[in-house]
Automatic annotation (TrEMBL):
Keywords, alphabetical: Membrane, Transmembrane, Transmembrane helix
SUPFAM superfamilies per the UniProt record, alphabetical: HlyD-like secretion proteins (SSF111369)
GO-annotated cellular components: efflux pump complex
Biased composition range(s): Low complexity: 410-422
Pfam families assigned: YknX_C
Protein name per the record: Macrolide-specific efflux protein MacA
Signal peptide: none
Residue spans of biased composition, Basic and acidic residues class: 38-49
Annotated gene: macA_1
Domain annotation YknX-like C-terminal permuted SH3-like: ranges: 339-407
Span list, region Disordered: 27-49, 404-437
Length: 437
């Protein structure tokens, strides 16, 4: 039962009830004594008609005494009795929004992958692999042979290209000689100017065909690579699909992590993406509990319109136990700043939309949608939707509906004053959670 706000009224009411109880007790004792005396006087011959009348008289006296006692108890106290109305409104804790120092921590989860993932394929088609020279986990130099090819067909292509070059050279020499002879007798009039120009054009065309044949020979030699599949850049071999005796036709044979540089691709919310800074460090944990420190190489270039997240890339140091494909969990500490924040317990969700209940002057609640930012323990940054010094429902918000009347459990206390209890994630209003009177 709720106590009245005035302690003097409560003391007076308590005295009235005590006096009423004493008076009722004395009345009952009197009635009891009268009944016992009447019963002794009435004792006699049970068959005597006067005996039955005396018994009935005794019962009547007892009933009248009980009624009198009840009447006295009902009248004692009079208008001085205290009547405390019982509120049916739901009891809730109330928090007043305020700014607080924020030491936010961003959770970062993602897969380790190469900064430059180089895919190596066979330089020629229609050839088989005769020998594998490197395996996964080995470090290769730029230009190092990785597999030896069966170059019989390729060598035939090389000889054909060389023959084409020789033929083009012969044609070029003949055409160049005819043009030079014609040019030497231009002034004699033996050949017309048109004939001379025709030989000149033929010589130029022969030179062009020779250049094309030489380029084709160069291409064949480059594609063969001396009969080997070579590494286009130095790095760690992280995958090998090449097999001895397998025909290659442009398939990927090896994957190289160029420079053995790895990074973590972590998905972060758009609010957290705005809080990150270039070069910021983050600590990632491996499955065995060991940690490695990464540095933010690239902020999210875009935000997915469906998930509202972006990809942040954290480069890892070399010579660590991290391997490409590992899933790492980590966190990044943001610089301290003053933000508007509320406890996590006051935030509700509906189809992914976060909201809180705001109290008006009549203690009626109104649903208000909010946008969330970074987190610091049990506190969440409010990006939009709330202002300073607004009263919101803390504990007890889960069973409220928009427009409900509530009964605050305590005077609102600004959220910023709860800073000493931040380590435990509690606040002053949280101590009253669960009380209803």
């Amino acid at each position: 039962m709720n106590k009245p706000e005035n302690p003097e009224e409560f003391t007076r009411a308590e005295g009235l009830f005590k006096r009423a109880a004493d008076a009722g007790g004395r009345a009952l004792q009197t009635a009891k004594g009268a009944g016992e005396n009447a019963w002794r006087r009435a004792a006699g011959d049970p068959d005597d008609p006067s005996h039955r009348r005396r018994v009935l008289t005794m019962l009547g006296i007892g009933i009248v005494a009980v009624i009198a006692v009840m009447f006295v108890l009902s009248r004692l106290g009079g208008d001085g009795a205290v009547h405390t109305p019982v509120s049916t409104a739901q009891a809730v804790s109330v928090i007043t929004t305020a700014e607080r120092p924020f030491h936010a921590t961003i959770s970062l989860n993602g897969e380790a992958r190469p900064v430059r993932d180089i895919q190596v394929s066979a330089p020629a088609t229609g050839v088989r692999i005769l020998q594998l020279l490197v395996d996964e986990g080995e470090y290769v130099r730029e230009g190092q042979p990785m597999a030896r090819l069966d170059t019989n067909l390729a060598q035939a292509q090389t000889r054909a290209a060389q023959a084409s070059v020789a033929e083009a050279e012969s044609t070029s020499v003949r055409a160049r000689g005819e043009y030079e002879r014609a040019e030497s007798i231009r002034d004699s009039g033996a050949l017309s100017t048109e004939a001379i120009e025709t030989r000149r054009s033929a010589a130029i065309a022969a030179d062009a065909r020779l250049a094309a044949a030489r380029a084709q020979l160069q291409e064949v030699n480059a594609r063969l690579g001396g009969g080997y599949v070579r590494a286009p850049a130095a790095g760690l071999v992280i995958d090998r699909t090449a097999e001895v005796g397998r025909d290659v036709a442009g398939q990927i044979l090896f994957r190289i992590a160029a420079g053995n540089d790895l990074e973590v691709a972590a998905q972060v919310a758009e609010g957290e993406a705005l809080a990150l800074t270039q070069g910021q460090t983050a600590t990632f944990s491996l499955v065995d509990g060991t940690t490695v420190e990464g540095r933010l190489r690239r902020l999210p270039a875009s935000i997915d319109s469906r998930t509202r997240t972006g990809e942040a890339l954290f480069q890892l140091p070399r010579e660590t136990r991290v391997r490409a494909g590992m899933y790492l969990r980590g966190e990044a500490q943001l610089a301290e700043r003053s933000v508007l924040a509320v406890p996590q317990s006051s935030i509700l969700y509906d189809n992914g939309q976060a909201y809180v209940f705001v109290l008006d002057q009549e203690n009626n609640v109104h649903r208000t949608n909010i946008a969330l930012g970074a987190r610091d323990g049990d506190w969440v940054e409010i990006v939009s939707g709330l202002e300073l010094n607004q009263r919101i429902v803390g504990a007890g918000a889960a069973f409220l509906q928009d427009g409900d009347e509530v009964r605050p459990l305590a005077d609102p206390t600004p959220a910023a004053t709860t800073a000493p209890a931040d380590q435990s994630g509690e606040n002053n209003s949280g101590e009253l959670r669960g009380r209803e009177g």
